[in-house]
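Example record

One chain of 554 residues, shown exactly as stored in the release files.
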Amino acid sequence: MYTDKKNILQLVALLRAHGIKRIVLCPGSRNIPLVQTLANIPDFTCYPVTDERSAGFFALGLALHGGGPAAVCCTSGTALLNLHPAVAEAYYQQVPLVVISADRPAAWIGQMDGQTLPQPGVFGTLVKKSVSLPEVVSEEDEWYCNRLINEALLELSHHGKGPVHINVPISEPFFLLPVNELPNARVITRYQGLNVYDKDYQPLIDRLNRYQRRMVVVGQMNLIYLFDKRYTKMLYKHFAWFSENISNQTVPGMPIRNIEPLLCSMNQEEQEKMRPELLITYGGHVISKRLKRFLRKHPPVEHWHISPDGEVMDLYGSLTTLIEMDPFEFLEKIAPMMDNRTPDYPRGWEARSKAIPQADFAYSEMSAIGKVIRQLPVPCSLHLANSSTVRYAQLFDVPSEVEILSNRGTNGIEGSLSTAIGYATASDKLNFIIIGDLSFFYDMNALWNSNYGANVRILLLNNEGGEIFHALPGLVLHENARRFVTATHKSSAHAWAEDRGFEYLSAHNDAELDEAVKRFTEPSVTQRPMLLEVFTDKQLDIELLKEYYHSLKK
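Predicted structure tokens for this chain:
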């Protein structure tokens, strides 16, 4: 009855779920599995039109009648190009039109195979969204396929209406119809400009109150937000709040920050018991790989992502709802509408978090970061470079008055120092920069300008190479490849720092580190910028970190 092509099954199930009922079908061979499946769904009204150019405008007329979306499905090759005029008209008339094109497998594009041309993105800026589905051979392919279709269909009416294009590569054989029912495809919904008193949103509030195991995860946020005191307690008691240092103070209370050691201390059975029913997220990037693995392996029943742009962000593979508004406005609006029960779930997480011992390392990169963080004067700004540095800093509590910044948009090492120096130049506070040797030497020309002043303090962690590479699970480096992968070196910043007018401090052991950190964090010493270079042994750093995590599992 239906094709066995999983990308088509996901597409058809989601077309139905998103309320698209009128579909124009054009003849061809490559789109046979699409046509046969669509024609067998009683919820669809299908219209046969032979000429694709006419079919596009016919579908446009269907969509204009009543304003709901319509779809047109064609075969591969030039058939798709004949839809271009109708797509342009739909774009400028703001008509919700779904263009579905069958395609040859990507490997055969540009190889003189029949009816092939580059179909993904063929309409350019004349569609609101263009996606090309994967051919599904794994669970990840199916998740990706589902997400792309949801993204495209949601865009039909996002900030105005308009056309979208869904390209479907189909491999032979494609004449078989062995499937008897459509899959239970995940549907992502979007709420825009939430008015909690509107009856359309009442089901959302009802679901919120139904779940007792509620978790909030906050990604990177470059601000400090003070919640309205009327709502702080209301909100805090209902959720298990997780955030990282780069999230800054953006939750109503004290969140759980020791995420990596906390999850490391729990076995799979314990993690499953603590699985949330409802996950709410806001903010940007999340550092913790263990948190990502936890939520992907133990997914919530629902995942709501709150952001002003309303874009699909499915980091944990379980997104169900997009709420397009300011996250703080959303939280403060729902606070009075939550039931009065205080669930045990947040207290369970807090108890586990408090049972984790504070990280205490012998002389190492980690101990240097910890000592500086514990003695930071407030207020100040703390800049965390990428790779090991930003991860190690998560092991220590940073005062809430300290503003934390990090280039986590793409997580590259280039530019960490330049960004921090630029920020410090415009800042009237002390700016502390914690950076590893590769990040520093890669971007050392950040100090080759005359713009910055005495409010810059750089903690340079030098263990003669890229440490993060040694922490990658399963990586075994042969000796002849080690220097290429880890960028080993024998460099020091001493001469460069002094040449650029910095007060230079260094440490090779605990005693020297304690003495240097006192001066490095002293706020009244502001005559010159400072650079504290801490020399450690890479192998010892790695072993100490492994021992710490191993101790948590006992």
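Notes: The chain has a mean pLDDT of 91.
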